[in-house]
Design goal:
The chain is an alpha/beta fold. It has 17 helices and eight strands. A six-stranded mixed β-sheet has the order 4-5-6-7-1-8, sandwiched between helices. The protein binds zinc ion (ZN). Zinc ion binds next to α3.
Amino acid sequence: MSFSEFHGNAETVHRLREMLGRGRFPHAVVLSGGRGAGKYTLALMLAKALNCLDPRETDGLPDFCDRCANCTRIGLAADLDARFAEAVEARENLRETDKKETRLFVQTHPDVLIIPPDPPQMMIKMDQVRRVIETIYYRPSEGRERVYVFTDSAFMKEAANSLLKVLEEPPEFATIFLLTENPGELLPTIRSRSMVFQLAALPVEEIERDLAERHAEWKPPERALVARLSNGAVGRARGFDLESYVAARAHALTILSSALKGGEHSELFKATETYRAGAEGRVKTESLIQTLYSLLQDLMFVSSGTPELARNIDILSELKRLAELTDFDWIAMASDRLADVERGMRRNLLRSLSLDAFAAALEVS
Ligand SMILES: [Zn+2]
């Protein structure tokens, strides 16, 4: 892997590499863009380039080898979801008293610390920033640059204020990446001390072309579906788990059609029963919720006479049948109830219980 494999946003990547080349990389970088736009991938690539033991040039600009000990170890953090799940599980296994005081981090290299939002609130907490403050003033031990990557911009107030203090006087040998879907979430004073780069979405056609190479095994309608579901994020499209999505969508359709058509509920309970508590169930339920949202949105497009905007275009005829049974009010109500389920999940209610409640609430109208 090298910078050439970062798809899209060539100009932004070029500028960042130029700054690397001049040895004047900013101490704080905000990478802004939708989910899957490549913020994390790019931050890790830059962390490798900052620390590569066998650095090279491509197109006259700095690149990384992706083979040396530093690149390899930093690369182990690439699957953020998996590393995050491991960290959550490790904490779950601690004694109650230790659990409370343990904050989540992902660290596969001594000089590179990844700071994910801490559950259940999914926010960056004071103790996480404290760890940054405790380590950032020590010279890197195995690389040239200490790198910190905040993977989300939802900071607790106290944590944001402490981070601001670090940004006022960062050491020479440290770089902080702040990844965000919405830079407005960051304190203005944090933004003004950082260089902000926007990673733009790619057009659907461009992602479809990329998928034709990367996922030749997918049929054209499947590639079209994935390209539309990825919101211009090529990384998300490439790594899209089509099988799981189609499975989740079948459940989502069962929930919606059982609510709209009434009658037999055994299919519905069979579907919701498979959503259990625990880390795995959480991921599964979250993807079901996202799928339900995308179907509701598509129903809205279809019923307002703009089916070409629908993303689940491979099941358009089924969506049209369902759309005939719905109206705007019902779709809006269903979206509200779905938001309730999401809130319930954050409070850790039993998954299948709140899904059944969701399905039942849809039927009342
Ligand atoms: Zn290297």
